[in-house]
Amino acid sequence: MIQWRPAVITKVQSRWAGAVEYAAELASGDTIRALGYVDSVGDLPVGARVLLNTTALERGLGTGGFAIVVAAPDHLPEPVDVRGVAGHLVKARYTPGQTMVLGVDEQDSPDHERLRDADDLGGLPVVVADLHSALPAIIAGLRDSAPEARVAYVMTDGGALPADFSRTVAALRESGWLEACITVGQAYGGDLEAVNVHTGLLAARLVVEADVAVVAQGPGNLGTGTRWGFSGTSAGEAVNAAGVLGGLPIASLRVSEADRRPRHRGLSHHSATAYGRVALVPADVPVPRLSEDLALYVHSQARALCDSTGGRLRLVDVDCDGLDDALRGTPVRLSTMGRGLEDDRLSFVAAAVAGRHAASLLRPR
Predict the structure, then answer these.
(1) Is residue 9 a contact partner of residue 56, using CB atoms and an 8 Å limit?
(2) Where would a tag sit more exposed on the chain, N or C end, judged by fewer CB atoms within 10 A?
(3) Domains, the chain, ranges and CATH?
């Protein structure tokens, strides 16, 4: 089901990376927020007639509160002879919004030869997380110990597909905290495009020359309240990819001290399932060394998780001194499920210790 709505752009509200937020007036006279991607529909003027997809907005789902601009019939981008454009990777395939990109790993890429027979990450630390909101916290923990480390973000397709949707990625790139965003699977719009997590990680090491890679889905995630029905199972698959390719997988735990849902209070069942059941290779599990009651409970949950794998997962206690200041110094606003640092501190500290542990594994260049 798709809800189509005609509208007229009445105001440009804000813009970041390749995304523009508009105020759009519906035929009913109501004004709503609408998101347009410049690569898809161009940079639209006030007064432009647009066709919106309002399905998720009307349902009240977690899409950031936006309708999506599908087309502006009177302001179509100039046609391009695609036969002369390098690249043949089609993403968001077989949907009306499918787009063609140049993959870093495909034949037209200048990096194809470098990646064609590549098979080894050479001990690259790879921090894997469930939620996109962990990304700045992981990097904050890393930079507190290794401020010059080059970081590549490998964005999977469990959440938003366009990288331009993420204000976080835009701000981290602008601040110099992030060297590159690599979009893999059906996700697109990164500095580099790759077919899957494996070639995305190899590109992080060999093309971006990153010291650390962080793998997580884009903004948003899908969950059904069932044991297996959530998009974060891809975190376990990313651990497998990192391990198979000779990286050093680090499992960043999803925890919360404020989530009202029992399955996410303390250690989330997402982390327990993804790392305990989906992941099949050895990985480090960093845990904050804190004395608060809930932190001690999370530690016991993490210990039980690691013990259940017969030693495949290795629990690592990480000191938290200075991490609160590091988190307060991020160039983006920390937010997870609508909660900030003061509302759900343990969530961000748990991500930051994964970054700090990655810093301890760095090898001299």
Answers:
(1) no
(2) N
(3) 4-71 (2.40.50.220), 112-360 (3.40.50)
The string over 53-69, giving b where at least 16 C-beta atoms fall within 10 Å of a residue's C-beta and e elsewhere, is bbbbbeeeeebeebbbb
| Residue 181: closest CA among 212, 143, 155, 201 | 155
SS3 label, residue 56: helix
pLDDT along the chain (365 residues), means of 10: 95 96 96 95 96 92 82 89 86 92 95 96 97 97 97 96 96 97 97 98 98 96 86 94 98 87 80 96 97 90 96 97 96 89 92 98 82
Q: Which helix (H) or strand (E) holds 240?
A: helix 234-244
Residue 119 burial by CB count (10 A; 0-12/13-18/19+): exposed, middle or buried? Answer: exposed
Q: Fill in the DSSP letter of residue 84.
A: G
Q: Does this model's pTM top 0.70?
A: yes
Strand (E) or helix (H) holding 114: helix 112-116
Give the closest residue to 241 by CA, choosing from 355, 156, 350: 156
How does 185-215 read in b/e, with b if 16+ C-beta sit within 10 Å? bebbbbbbbbeebbbbbbbbbbbbebbbbbb
- Identity of residue 273: T
Residue 62 has a pLDDT of 65
pLDDT at position 365, please? 64
